[in-house]
Amino acid sequence: MPGVGVLTDSCASIPENIIQQLNIQTVAYYIHRGQEVLYDLVTIQRREFLEWLQTARTLPTTASPGPGDYLTSYQNMVSHGAKEIISIHMTSKGSGAYQAALVAQSMAQEEMPDIRIEVIDTRNVSLCQGWMAIESARAALSGASLDEIVAKVKGMIQVTHMIQTADTLKYLYMGGRIGMAQRLVGSLLNIKPLIGMEDGVIVPLGTARSRHQAYQAMADLVEAIVGRGQIKIAYVHAGALDEVAKIKQLMEQRFDVVESFFAELSPALAVHTGPGTAGLCFYPIAS
């Protein structure tokens, strides 16, 4: 492990090969399915969970890791050589992870006063959070200091965006994560809602009559945000790889995409988005 260790949550949904390659540490969210407690991407995997979710009559609930979970991870990272840690979490307006990590940070500093831990509220989710962990880990491996990595992440918070669509918003609605997109719930049948996140809260970005039109609208939104400069994109989905492949083709015809990959949402996020969700998490880079 490099001197600066990078930790994030399972909801970042980073592909396993990238996690292993960059030595990113993850902490599992909890999924409560009736009396059963599942550990996100540990005791329940994506395909199995989505197959079950499509037949579920009642949605499971999710819970963020607790301070003890984060403290254990910090301790493990230090035991493997980390001298400093950056701890990167989804929006504090949608999860208690950030607050739990702050408590763990205080506990760790009492126990390990020579270890510095910086806890970050990304004010985002999914692969927006994931991109911040990925770039932090790359910087750490290249020898960047913790201050340099924190500055990089804070800069990314301002420019990293999510856009996604689905056939329904019922999962977000039922899970209580609908945010300012509440008004789209009553949309006419076959209208595809577009949602994003601003300052940590889900917001409506429009509607389209078909998935194809929704993907075209995504491209227009990306251009409005970043222009025609170079960007990095994660094509994010929940059991909809064919759909994000269409998004990829459209985006990479239109933009200078310098890095991209497919990423499937973790079960703890798929609870709220539902099967069939497709979209992208992206940010511009200096050319």
Briefly, what is this?
The chain has ten helices and 13 strands. It has about 290 residues and is an alpha/beta fold.
Spans of 5+ residues with little confidence (pLDDT < 50)? 178-188
How many β-strand stretches? 13
Helix content: 25-40%
Task: Count structural domains.
Answer: 2
Give me the side-by-side strand order of the main sheet. 10-9-8-13-11-12
List the helices and strands and how they pair.
Blueprint: E1 4-9, H1 16-22, E2 25-27, E3 30-33, E4 36-39, H2 46-53, E5 61-63, H3 67-79, E6 84-89, H4 97-111, E7 116-121, H5 126-141, H6 146-157, E8 161-165, H7 170-174, E9 192-198, E10 201-208, H8 211-226, E11 230-237, H9 241-254, E12 256-264, H10 267-273, E13 278-284
Parallel strand pairs: 1-2, 1-6, 6-7, 11-12
Antiparallel strand pairs: 3-4, 3-5, 8-9, 8-13, 9-10, 11-13
Helix pairs in contact: 3-4, 5-6
Written account of the structure:
This protein is an alpha/beta fold and 287 residues long. The protein has 2 domains: 4-29 and 64-157, Rossmann fold, CATH 3.40.50.10170; 161-284, Hypothetical Protein Tm841, Chain: A,domain 3, CATH 3.30.1180. The protein contains 10 helices and 13 strands. It has a 6-stranded mixed sheet with strand order 10-9-8-13-11-12, sandwiched between helices. α5 runs antiparallel to α6 (146-157). The chain is globular. The two termini are 30 Å apart. The model is unreliable at 178-188 (pLDDT under 50).
Task: Record keyword descriptors for this entry.
287 residues, alpha/beta, Rossmann fold, Hypothetical Protein Tm841, Chain: A,domain 3, six-stranded mixed sheet, four-stranded parallel sheet, 10 helices, 13 strands
